Amino acid sequence: MIDIHCHILPNVDDGAECMQEAINMAKIAKEQGINKIIATPHYHPEFKYAKGEELKEIYKEFKNELKENNIDIEMYLGNEIYYTYDLIDKFSELDFYSLNDSKYILIEFPPNNFPNNLCNVVYEIKQQGFTPILAHVERYIKIHEDPEIIYDCIKTGAIIQINSSSLIGKQGKEFQKICNLLISRNMVHLVSTDAHSDTRRRPLLKDAYEYVEKKHSKSMAENLFINNAQCILDNRDIIIEEPLEKQIEKVSLLSRIFRR
After folding, report:
1. What is any Pfam family matched here (predicted)?
2. What's the Cα-to-Cα distance from 164 to each of 58, 102, 103, 196, 225, rounded to whole Å?
């Protein structure tokens, strides 16, 4: 499997706190059947997270440590970009990393200041030459209230990612419910760990893969955990299934009469 959202690099953000913890995370990932990871440390214009060349050097050091520890995982570099209202205007000035130097960027939104015009944001990012992957969409209250936001974003060109822990109910039934709703309507393209440590938020995918395989289908699981992520690594277009429109229940005139 391939994890395209993981805070595994040590001492760069709120993820792994040291090299040993990062190595432990990699061992867990390998045991889970994860063979490729895109490290996606937070990129926040106002926070002093490691970025640019400093981040690339830490990434190279971690890859060397994996080799020294005989952990056979392929590593790639990216960022999880924090959206601010002036972000797009500054795109050309910022030193963030797209996912494996592809056209895909991973982007998250402030939960308490979620943009009302999300489709416009997607459109503007596309105009900059990138394809936005909307991170852990199940965590936003506005999506619970109106899943059609995701439908519209996909039609505008967004790729949708959810967290594995949400999908299997580790974050509560409501998170699991919205994940399943989105999957059933072809409105999820990637399931990732969003792992931050080797204890509390670990890089776990196996149970989520088996859950999708059982509840939905094996082909769906293959796409969400492997095929679509490989397209990102190869900088190829993900084959997007047409998202399903909301089903509006139609009540016949005859049934209305009998209900009276």
Report:
1. CpsB_CapC
2. 26, 23, 24, 13, 10
- Distance (Å, rounded) from C-alpha 24 to C-alpha 102? 28
CA distance linking residue 177 with residue 168, whole number of Å? 10
- Within 13 A of 152's CA, how many CA atoms are on the CB side? 13
Q: Using an 8 Å Cβ cutoff, are 204 and 32 in contact?
A: yes
Q: How far is the C-alpha of 211 from the C-alpha of 225, rounded, in Å? A: 12
CA distance 230 to 250: 41
Residue, of 133 and 85, whose pLDDT is higher: 133
Beta carbons within 8 Å of 117's beta carbon, 6+ residues apart: none
Q: Which token pair is 259?
A: 């209900």
Cα separation of 125 and 152, whole Å?
15
Which among 137, 35, 19, 135 is positioned nearest to 78, based on CA atoms?
135
CB 217 within 8 A of CB 84: no
The amino acid that residue 173 corresponds to is: K
- Assign residue 209 the CATH number of its domain: 3.20.20.140
The total of structural domains in the chain comes to 1
pLDDT, tens digit, 9 for 90 and up, residues 189-224: 999 999 999 998 999 999 999 999 999 999 999 999
d(CA 150, CA 158): 9
